[in-house]
Amino acid sequence: xELTGILLAAGRGRRFDPAGTRNKLLQxxxxxxxxxxxxxxxxxxxxxxxxxVVPPIDGGVAGVLRALGCDVVVCREADTGMGAxxxxxxxxxxxxxxxxxxxxxxxxxQEATLAALRDAVAAGADxxxxxxGGRRGNPVAFGACHRDALLASxxxxxxxxxxxxxxxxxxxVNDPGILRDIDTPGDLPA
Length: 190
Description:
Layout: E1 3-8, H1 35-46, E2 50-54, H2 61-68, E3 71-74, H3 82-92, E4 98-103, H4 111-122, E5 127-132, E6 135-136, E7 140-143, H5 147-151, H6 160-165, E8 169-172
Parallel strand pairs: 1-2, 1-4, 2-3, 5-8
Antiparallel strand pairs: 4-7, 5-6, 5-7
Helix pairs in contact: 1-2, 1-4
């Protein structure tokens, strides 16, 4: 059974713009592509289905993601934390062979990294995380055996407790993008 991609794009980005007037996911990278579009495009290149989770008011993120081919879903509880968005997406893709959970504000993750995580779960890993320079990063892939636990995700920790309480396969990658997200305006490349 194939993995389904999950793109979490429902956060408010308060550190990027405390006033809430500029959505970090719609900011342009040097090539002109929005941050969230680059994140989604890489995930779509590796998986046949991507469920993208957006908040009720998204400023145009849903339209960008739909145009790329994502299945866009609105999570009304997005403000309660990443866990609610993750559980919402799993409910909409429960029959998957597993899930590759990526973040909308991480446009620098390489497609080869996503493919390696996908392949690790396909080969039997229950949880696979990328490691670069000795540091774990994102995204994270989960096997179907974690369905119930992912459905119970809540708060800002998302699935972090699973990573602490279950065996994890670390996938070494030459990809600093697994450690790089867009949290502040200074994180955008010039």
